[in-house]
Amino acid sequence: MANTLQRLIIGDEPQAWRSAGFTVDDKYVVLGKTTVELVGTSGGRGILAWSLDGMAAEIDGLPTMIVPEHNRAAPQQHRNMVFAIDHVVVQTNDFGRTVPAFVDAGMDERRSRVFMAGGTERRQSFFWAGRVIVELVGPSVAADGPPHAEFWGLALVSANLEIASTELGGSLSEPKDAVQPGRKIATLNTRDLDISVPIAFMSPHVANLGDPV
After folding, report:
1. Has residue 212 been placed in a domain?
2. pLDDT tens digits for 139-185?
3. Of the candidates 104, 95, 150, 156, which has an alpha carbon nearest to the alpha carbon of residue 126?
4. What does the CA dihedral 79, 157, 174, 23 come to, rounded to 10 degrees?
5. Beta strand extents in the chain (DSSP E only)
6. Would you tell me which of 68, 88, 140, 173 could form a disulfide with 123, CB atoms 3.0–4.6 Å apart?
7. Domain for residue 209, yes or no?
8. Overall domain count for the chain
9. Number of neighbouring beta carbons within 10 Å of residue 72
10. Residues 6 and 34: beta-carbon distance below 8 Å
């Protein structure tokens, strides 16, 4: 599929992700069609870059790399039952700058909504990176801030949040209703695990509601 999310480069140690119930092969975590590469903490924290099929240039300042495919076996079972990335969250302070950058890169804006949060009007726009959603979020009116978009967090799909909760104990919050009808969401306590990316676990998509499965 066009613009498939192939790789995420993250500034974390592999052991931190093992502690969160992921199977880590050397420094690689395979989630669906995407490989997460854990490069340690010396070069920075958080999501450092991504690789999208057929794309080499950065998108509104988001580091976009061409990386060689890691020769890997079929994805292994993760103790936390995660099997795919649902969406990557990107922050912007200026939708008028970032949305055209995504469109120019060949990623169509599929949906947008405005909502209130903490007394401030905010906006979300959604794009596809293969079967992964890119959720762009920020103030609905351009505001002061960095002159480029920034990676923020991840939502991952777990086949069974109850099993994930049992495996991770207090490291996973109590599941609650997600925005999408019929789905649940729980938050991973990444701070205690020394994971630098905010991560949520979500139950699988409900069939026939227009989301990827």
Report:
1. no
2. 999 999 999 999 999 999 999 999 999 999 899 999 999 988 999 99
3. 95
4. 20
5. 5-10, 28-31, 34-38, 47-52, 82-91, 111-117, 120-129, 132-139, 150-158, 176-177, 184-187, 199-202
6. 140
7. no
8. 1
9. 12
10. yes
Whether the predicted pLDDT of 202 surpasses 60: yes
Taking only the tens place, the pLDDT of each residue in 91-140 is: 999 999 999 999 999 998 999 999 988 888 999 999 999 999 999 999 99
Q: Which residues pair with 112 in a beta bridge?
A: 125
CATH number at residue 157: 3.10.180.10
Q: What is the pTM of this model?
A: 0.92
DSSP state, 134? E
- 63 belongs to a structural domain: yes
Q: Are 155 and 183 in contact (CB under 8 A)?
A: no
Count Cα atoms within 13 angstroms, Cβ side, for 190.
17
| Residue range(s) defining the domain that contains residue 113 | 5-202
Report the C-alpha dihedral over residues 31, 33, 38, 43, rounded to 10 degrees: -140
